[in-house]
Amino acid sequence: MIITTPLKYNDTLLEEVKELGRYYNIPFLYRDKISTKKLVEKYSEVLVVGKEKVQLNRRNENFTYHPNFSQVRLKRILKGESDSFLEATNLTVGDRFLDCTMGLASDSIIASIVTDDVTALESTLGVYLVVTIGMSKYRYTLRELENASKTIKTHHINAYNFLKEQQDNSYDVIYFDPMYEENVNSEGIEGLKHYADNSELTEAIIEEAKRVASKRIVLKAHFNSPLFKRFNFMQCVRKSTVSHYGVILTS
């Protein structure tokens, strides 16, 4: 992987991208008017960081950060409407929230509206970089969303390895949103699915989560996913939607 600028950039952006390369230990390459396609042919993965846009490019596919449905959800929340994620997690001010499957971080952003102690884990380097850098650059339409995104602590690490290092009851709520086993048509995750970690949840991960979570573990999955029964989650049935939540109370 290399990191570079868009074709058009100024000195400020150039220095910023070079610094990001040093910080994340990714080789920086001057663009020199070379097309992204040619860069991908030579380097396989090309991370392009612009003023407001971050995109990871591979052959025949790319992944760009966007807040998915979090903006729409927050507008509804601000109007006093319910949010199924917040209902399932039962988050309160000051709760320590751990998102073990960050992805586009849309749920972590919503969690940050309630509590300023949110940690998100991402095992895939490309997704971690695009989302972590992208959240700091994206031009959000809601100031509340922008402020929430800045409080999230992100880590490039496998959830199991992270959980093993934590003390008992280190977090109040632990959240899993693995990629669905079934094909689901969604523009929000179309770009993500080519880069995401498709590893399944295991008994070992859930057992560590039970030790670390002081209040509950929450799972989001397809309504007919076998994960609910396999790990004894209480499935919260939601009519007319393919996504259901499951809860394990640990307190």
UniProtKB/TrEMBL annotation:
Sample GO molecular function, one term: rRNA (guanine-N2-)-methyltransferase activity
A Pfam family per the record: SAM_MT
Cited InterPro entries: 16SrRNA_methylTrfase_J, SAM-dependent_MTases_sf
Top-level lineage group: Bacteria
Xref: PANTHER family: RIBOSOMAL RNA SMALL SUBUNIT METHYLTRANSFERASE J (PTHR36112)
Name of the protein this chain belongs to: SAM-dependent methyltransferase
Species name: Nosocomiicoccus ampullae
